[in-house]
């Protein structure tokens, strides 16, 4: 835990120094809201929370809609057995509320859960997630760093969950140059246990990404989840193709590094209007 505290202090000190040099946003930009949208010509660079686990500190422009989702995802929850799940069109539907706030609704339209013998255990609609994102600074790219906060609650609308889960994440990004950037996410999660209480876990990610060639981007990422009785590590990576400035497709995977970690492979789509 001392290492975690040291990391947090270091990141926030660096971020605070950078933020002090941030240029003041024009009053005009702050005046936009859900009912007075940002003109399309003034929209910020298209930024998405997927496909890496590390999310973006940037919010959706006020008055605009954004979709980010898995068209298809394969999940092996643990190593050493053959249980698996398939997700189809599970996505985040985002709405820009103001210059610094947006709202996310996560809908898992169809899930299929199978046991070790390949028999279907449950299927149908999954959980429903409600999130808010706030950008502290760096929304418009006028600083090298950006920091956000994403409080969330997961409603147990799926056939395999019964209790609410909740938490808050703090995504951070650092622009290395015009082609490459790094990021990290610190997140506290509270998940229900069998006794009716909640287990606390801490998620930490570190990511590096950028342009490979033309409109093709990449990322590589490490993720750790630290809970009371288990520690999970995965190595993640993927490719993102920018079809237009407002449409992206991606393919990615999370590879388990320990037996209790999940392995995932997925293809996704993101767009904004």
List unreliable stretches of 5+ residues: 1-24
Q: Tell me the β content.
A: over 45%
Termini separation (Å)?
43 Å
Give the class-level CATH name.
Mainly Beta
Task: Name the overall outline.
Answer: globular
Strand order of the largest sheet: 1-2-3-5-6-7-8-9-10-11-12-13
Question: What's the CATH topology label?
Answer: Porin
> How many H/I helices?
2
- Percentage of residues assigned to helices: under 10%
In CATH, the architecture is Beta Barrel
Which characteristics define this entry?
273 residues; single chain; 13 strands; 8% helix; twelve-stranded antiparallel barrel; mainly beta; 2 helices; Porin
Outline the structure in words.
With 273 residues, the protein is mainly beta. The protein has one domain (2-272): Porin (Beta Barrel). Helix content is 8%, strand content 55%. It has helices spanning 2-19, 27-30; strands spanning 65-76, 84-96, 101-114, 120-124, 128-137, 145-155, 165-175, 180-192, 198-213, 216-227, 231-244, 247-256, 263-272. Residues 1-24 have low confidence and may be disordered.
Brief overview, please?
The chain is built from two helices and 13 strands; from the N terminus they run H-H-E-E-E-E-E-E-E-E-E-E-E-E-E.
SSE layout and pairing:
Elements: H1 2-19, H2 27-30, E1 65-76, E2 84-96, E3 101-114, E4 120-124, E5 128-137, E6 145-155, E7 165-175, E8 180-192, E9 198-213, E10 216-227, E11 231-244, E12 247-256, E13 263-272
Antiparallel strand pairs: 1-2, 1-13, 2-3, 3-4, 3-5, 5-6, 6-7, 7-8, 8-9, 9-10, 10-11, 11-12, 12-13
